[in-house]
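Re-run requested by the PI after the first attempt was lost when the workstation crashed. Everything re-entered from the original request form. Ligand of interest: pyridoxal-5'-phosphate.
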Amino acid sequence: MNNISRRDSEVIWHPYTQMQLSPLATGIVKGEGVYLIDEAGNRYIDAISSWWVNLHGHSHPYIAQRLSEQLTTLEHCIFAGFTHEPAVQLAERLLPLLPGNMARIFYSDNGSTAVEVALKMALQYQSNQDTGRRRIIALEGAYHGDTFGAMSVSGRSLFTRPFETLLFDTAYIPFPHPGQEEETLHALETLLQQEDAAALILEPLVQGASGMRMYTSGVLEQMMRCCREYGCLVIADEVMTGFGRTGTWFACDQVQDARPDIICLSKGLTGGTVPLGVTACTQRIYDAFLSEDHHKTLYHGHSFTANPIACTAGIASLDLLLAPACRLQIDALVSAHSAAKTHWQNGKGLKAVRQCGTILALELETGTATGYLNRHRDHIYHFFLERKILLRPLGNIIYILPPYCITTGQLGFVYEEIDQLLSTL
Ligand SMILES: *Cc1c(COP(=O)(O)O)cnc(C)c1O
């Protein structure tokens, strides 16, 4: 018992973890549907989809079977000068599903690299055409990943502090809190009038890491339209919001006339099985790189670009996602959340309750302590772990973002335990 946990503590450095203060990591030996099963046989409901990646449940037999066939057919090959069926098929199936008029797929390894590629595409698009536009605009509180470019366009925070002097300058506009949209739009337009903006990058509808902060599709549409008017590109970072999380296939689908120029995808892209990143762009972006001049090439690539196993996982996940059964699961989840939201609205100890599709977030009253290091956070995390539920609050924000296969019974159990927690505060 606890064998993996103990061996781990000798050799592993965990992500986003103060190793001196953290208890032993829970050793997981098996995943099964919505459950993660530990060494002692405890079954935890994975109510945050293991950092927002899992869509159809753990160790899904259909995805497993497709991956195993692919492993014995072609496990990997170089993607410059060579290509293969899984990469082409996933691109063919993804492009028509994406919002706007996406024409090309560039593969990479994860959400951060998908963002790096998007930034490079946008900046080199501008330099290939000598527009002189070099500035990136982002929303305050944004999170776009942990590599240097992605950190540079993310909000400055606890996460970025040690590197701050090395990050490139980004112009930030205020978060469009409901009721304060005008301020955001005004700040955006003022920046755009300077005509030096290469691109606006944003997490459409929901800022994940900053606490599941939500804004309306109306202001999203206005921001995008404003950018188009002033010749500034729009990068939609749908790494978290993609593949049904917001109730529609993509968050940008909730905007009538959404036309991002570049879209970043990862997390749910493979159903959460193996890492893969996608940066999709329009024909106009792609065309700006076509030239007899080698300087206009996008010199970017990773060793495992378009890994066939990862692409196959993407195809298998799409098969499941587009089956009518999954649509029913998503709709059931959205309506269960909606009822829970009504139940908690104006609840004691709650500052706000927010929902966007399959994402439900509860913001606890905290007095003065807010943010990622909020004192409630560890207490809440362990409260739920003891009850065999994996919920990982972002500071004082508890959110539920489960795999779509979660049953109403399992979801009801999660809601009840949250009620229990609220009654102890
Ligand atoms: C998680 C996330 C990323 C980074 O993805 P990784 O795969 O963790 O590198 C980028 N953007 C958004 C919106 C995210 O939620």
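Saved to the shared folder this time. The radius of gyration is 21 Å.
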